[in-house]
Design a protein that fits this description.
Blueprint (H helix, E strand, L loop, with lengths): L7 H7 L2 E6 L5 H9 L5 E7 L2 H11 L3 E4 L8 H9 L5 E5 L4 H9 L4 E4 L4 H11 L2
């Protein structure tokens, strides 16, 4: 059995990137398959709907990148983004709201990048790679 590097520095030196996913329950299985399909280059650090749980996972797993849909209905996206940024990891915002205002808000609040859920999977993977450097 292959042992994966545990610390962020070890993962960077071997090229393995760990990813924490934060999105709706209906979206998480597909995102999980996408990340798992990129093994061993990418490793899933966790997946959750809840920002508070994501912070706990981030503290325990030290992911290289957080991919989150913070602009979900009924949520204060900027507050959620600010919370996730407190984990000290780059955040790639994955959203259906890919308009100029949402993009400006996310990037202005500190997101590494924003990817539309309508974009090809390769765009999300490229954003993860760019954020995890």
């Amino acid at each position: 059995m292959e042992t994966l590097p545990s610390s962020a520095a070890d993962r960077r030196s071997t090229g393995v990137r760990s990813v924490l996913l934060v999105d709706n329950a209906s979206v998480l299985p597909g995102l999980t398959r996408l990340i798992s399909g990129e093994a061993p280059r990418l490793r899933l650090a966790g997946a959750t709907e809840c920002t508070v749980q994501a912070l706990g996972i981030a503290a325990a797993q030290c992911p290289d990148v957080i991919v989150a849909d913070v602009f979900r209905p009924g949520r204060d996206g900027l507050a959620a983004l600010a919370q996730l940024l407190q984990a000290g990891r780059p955040v790639v915002v994955l959203t259906c709201s890919d308009d100029a205002t949402t993009r400006a808000l996310a990037l202005g609040a500190g997101a590494h990048s924003l990817v539309s859920k309508l974009s090809p999977a390769c765009e999300l993977l490229a954003a993860i790679d760019a954020a995890g450097c």
